[in-house]
Amino acid sequence: MIRLTLSDAHSLAQSILLHAGFSAAHATAVSATIVAGERDGCASHGLYRVLGCVSTLKAGKVVADAQPEVIDQAPSIVRVDAAGGFSQLAFQAGLPMLQNKARENGIAALAINRCVHFSALWVEIEQLAEAGFVALAFTPSHAWVAPAGGHQPVFGTNPVAFGWPRPGKHPYVFDFATSAIARGDIELHRRAGKTIPEGWGVDEQGQPSTDPNVVLDRGAMLTFGGHKGSALATMVELIAGPLIGDLTSAESLAHADGSKSSPYHGELLIALDPRRFLGAATDQHLARAETLFESIEGQGARLPSQRRFEARARSLEEGVQIPEALYHDLKALLA
Amino acid sequence: MIRLTLSDAHSLAQSILLHAGFSAAHATAVSATIVAGERDGCASHGLYRVLGCVSTLKAGKVVADAQPEVIDQAPSIVRVDAAGGFSQLAFQAGLPMLQNKARENGIAALAINRCVHFSALWVEIEQLAEAGFVALAFTPSHAWVAPAGGHQPVFGTNPVAFGWPRPGKHPYVFDFATSAIARGDIELHRRAGKTIPEGWGVDEQGQPSTDPNVVLDRGAMLTFGGHKGSALATMVELIAGPLIGDLTSAESLAHADGSKSSPYHGELLIALDPRRFLGAATDQHLARAETLFESIEGQGARLPSQRRFEARARSLEEGVQIPEALYHDLKALLA
Q1: In this complex, do B277 and A225 lie within 8 Å of one another by their Cβ atoms?
Q2: How many whole angstroms separate alpha carbon B76 and alpha carbon B217?
Q3: Residue A124 has what pLDDT?
Q4: Which family does it belong to (chains A, B) (predicted)?
Q5: Contacts A79 to B, Cβ<8 Å
Q6: How many degrees, rounded to 5, is the angle at CA B90 between CA B162 and CA B231?
Q7: For chain B, what is the radius of gyration of the CA atoms?
Q8: All domains of chain A, ordered by start, with CATH?
Q9: What is the CA radius of gyration of chain A?
Q10: How many CB atoms lie within 10 A of CB B217?
């Protein structure tokens, strides 16, 4: 393993993205979310993603110098046209207006359109929660997941993320795929020649399958939680697709046209300002939420993201460690 | 079984509620949602609930003539103080302002406070979707459900409901508990002396239990979908509790103080206006949503609520049927 300080990790990612041809603004914004993933122990959203950014650019599937355009769509809606660039810069561009609208009106939405998306949603949700907002985020991906009772892929892994501000503490944040498992986990089982647990996927007749080849190549992945997870995945398609005038997971997969590039579509964020709901009583009611968290942690259950926050504390002290092979693959991109 | 026309069913419910002492406005609003439940084949939210309304009033746990107060909280927030009455009239009172704010600003929230709640959320969601809005609803209940990894009840059955408008068709609507199963289903197993499937509940040490007595009396129910369902249940507590200045499921259960009355707390609804997101392209993007629905139904999978809509079509033709014993119990309340 190679150890890097967070600052070195950021410089490495940024220099590779610049060298590949991304604009300075994109290289900086993308590096920040990639280093956040690595820092928080989410290797699947960490430095390894730099390789995907470069290959997506080489495949002509992302605009290296896209200028996000911020549109004041309605009193409580901001729209950002990412113009074919990665989502991070578009989110940054829309964030101030989203916050202003939520502060002014109590609730507001940010629709990001035409972005290439690979970022974990918690990175964005955390920024909103740290700024005092309750926040939700949704995005489709590529159609890999069948609806409950079906056998053909319709949904993406369609994550749902939520954040709640906790004064003086890390916010309460969750961010989960509505698929039973990440596609990458099934890929890992395939490479290792292992079967997968029941519940992850079906064959082309809709029968449960434990063969990763069948699930990935001919059948489909499943949602978590049966028909309830399937309903949530449908909701994500609708509100982060047609509602914002952007692609569904099926349309995004068709757009990729066989390339391994990141999904291209939209994202919906919703921000709610507790101070507009609660006025002078805000602090008192946020304290009642702490009682709820205590009743969960007090019985030995964990809050989501705690593992991430623990990894973060370690990384801030010790830096991050990445496999030597990955380090060399990254360095090779600077040649 | 006794057969009733929908009109007779409504008159029966209404006359009982009036006789029990509810104001005409409450009797009419509550009867409408109860008959909607019976009509759609949801007996658990049907005429049987009239008994619970009357017993809740006799227990002093609902205000029979509460006047909901509508408060223009912020440009995109309506608040309705239900003043201790059932939720239905409060929802009705707040609905026009919610719709106006969503139409004007693109997204708006309705917070209902201090209501006694037993209504299915789809009744409300459907009204918003029929009026052209995308809608979400959340409410806590009584603390019966343990967090993932825990063994003590913290959450209610905490439903999440969603609606999407489909021009010329019934809207796409789902409404599900974030608990693995309704509490009533576990009660039915207890009465029948049957064990319950694994995954519905745990004992007081957090071990899986198939004994309904253990789960109901000493252990706790579980959420659907493991840690993901548990995260959603937490979100419902937060956004339909502290965010709107109202009780959590634990506080609501404490308020009931051993009585079997309906939960007393708040509800959060969010309405989004597709026309403010999409402008002139609205119809084109709603048509793309229909392609998504076709890709689900075309492979033999069902959309949520289809069973309800089928039951509704039958009930509109043939009326509803209720058990004779229930009919006599209801009639007895008019004596």
Answers
A1: no
A2: 43
A3: 97
A4: Belongs to the LDH2/MDH2 oxidoreductase family.
A5: 277
A6: 40
A7: 20
A8: 2-58+305-332 (1.10.1530.10), 69-179+223-279 (3.30.1370.60)
A9: 20
A10: 10
Q: Identify the residue whose tokens are 């959060």.
A: B268
ipTM above 0.90, yes or no: yes
Whether the Cβ atoms of residue B141 and residue B157 lie closer than 8 Å to each other: yes
Q: How do residues A42-51 score in pLDDT, each as one tens digit?
A: 888 899 999 9
The vertex-B301 CA angle with B298 and B302, nearest 5°, equals 105
Helix (H, G, I), strand (E, B) or coil at B322: strand
A45 catalytic residue (yes or no) = yes
Record: contact B134-A172, CB cut-off 8 A: no
Question: What pLDDT score was predicted for residue B254?
Answer: 87
pLDDT in tens, A243-272: 999 999 999 888 877 777 778 899 999 999
Nearest partner of A54 among A62, A45, A46, A44, judged by Cα = A62
Buried b (16+ CB within 10 A) or exposed e, B41-63: bbbebbbbbbeebbbbbeeebbb
Distance from CA of A83 to the nearest CA of B (A): 17
* Lookup: tokens for A87: 């989502």
B87 is catalytic: no
| pLDDT average, residue stretch A93-105 | 98
Q: 10 Å Cβ neighbour count for B36? A: 22
- CA B72/CA B79 separation, integer angstroms: 6
Dig out the tokens for A61 from the structure: 């599937």
> How many residues are given for chain A?
335
- Token pair, residue B321, equals 């049927």
CB neighbours (10 Å) of residue A321? 14
pLDDT at position B221 is 97
